[in-house]
Amino acid sequence: MINGFLLINKDSGITSSMVVQIIKKKFNFNKVGHLGTLDPMAEGLLILAINRATKFSSLLLQSNKTYQAEVTLGQQTDTDDADGKITSTHKVICNEEEVKEKLLLFLGESQQLAPAYSALKHKGKPMYKYAREGIQVDKEPRTITINQIANISINLPRVSFDITSSKGTYIRSIARDLGNKLKCGGHLSGLIRTSQEKFSINDANPIDKVREANIIPLENAFDNLSSITLNQHDTNAFINGVALELKIDHSNLLRVYDSSKKFIAIGKNTTQGFKHEYLV
């Protein structure tokens, strides 16, 4: 069974779930999952976990992501992006300095409200379903972090920039909130995800050109982690959930190999001993 990760360069106009189904059918994989949704309008890097790699997905789901974003000021939409219906139009009277100043206010930690049309669930039901029914949901804001905003280019009413954000950040909400700060409204008119964790769009393939040979082996995806090799006795106990007493003075994640140098898990030292966090 092939296990690992595929880097897809997603086109605009297709959902992340559709990409998953196409790849699953194309290669007849048992399991495929994506590691962070890209909206239909958005393009760029979409990481797919193949077969047993899905068990390791949370390690990459927590990672920061970088995007090239374009915001169009003066128009608000119901979805906060160009796929939605225009709900209000205002004259853009701000200047470039004001736009840059307000945009840079998003740097650091803040509270963000998700778009009304989002997959976040309220009482077990996605918010976009409430929105389609005309029901307003008061959802609690979430803490996000914007690590970097760079390469700002302003040609009003459009503003483009590169942005690096934490897990759970909606760039659509950044566009909406920037328009609100400038008192003219705004929506996301373009979005390309360029990187996630250590993976880059430069190494991704269009969905129609991807091959099985492009799959990144499971252990290679985590080659930034240090490793440890266990003897056969410890391997058997470790796989069965027994905490090992090893001389490890930290709790960093480690790649774990058995005595034959086969990758078997990612583990870490705990107060109970060395245990697996993710088992192949």
List the defining traits of the structure above.
single chain; 280 residues; alpha+beta; Pseudouridine synthase; Archaeosine Trna-guanine Transglycosylase, Chain: A, domain 4; 3 domains; four-stranded mixed β-sheet; 6 helices; 18% helix; elongated
Q: What is the second-level CATH architecture of the largest domain?
A: 2-Layer Sandwich
**Backbone CA Rg:** 22 Å
**CATH superfamily (homologous) name of the largest domain:** Pseudouridine synthase
| CATH C-level label of the largest domain | Alpha Beta
**Quick one: how many beta strands?**
18
The number of distinct structural domains comes to: 3
Helices, by number, come to 6
Descriptive notes:
- The structure is a single chain.
- This protein is an alpha+beta fold and 280 residues long.
- The chain has 3 domains: 4-63 and 198-217, Pseudouridine synthase (2-Layer Sandwich), CATH 3.30.2350; 65-196, Pseudouridine synthase (2-Layer Sandwich); 225-279, Archaeosine Trna-guanine Transglycosylase, Chain: A, domain 4 (Roll).
- Helices cover 18% and strands 36% of the residues.
- The chain has 6 helices and 18 strands.
- The protein has helices spanning 16-27, 57-61, 96-104, 127-132, 171-181, 232-239; strands spanning 4-10, 32-34, 43-50, 65-73, 75-77, 86-89, 108-112, 121-122, 125-126, 142-155, 158-165, 186-196, 199-200, 216-217, 227-229, 254-257, 263-270, 273-279.
- Strands 1, 2, 3, 4, 7, 10, 11, 12, 13 and 14 form a 10-stranded mixed sheet that branches. A 4-stranded mixed sheet has the order 15-16-17-18, covered by helices on one side.
- The relative contact order is 0.18.
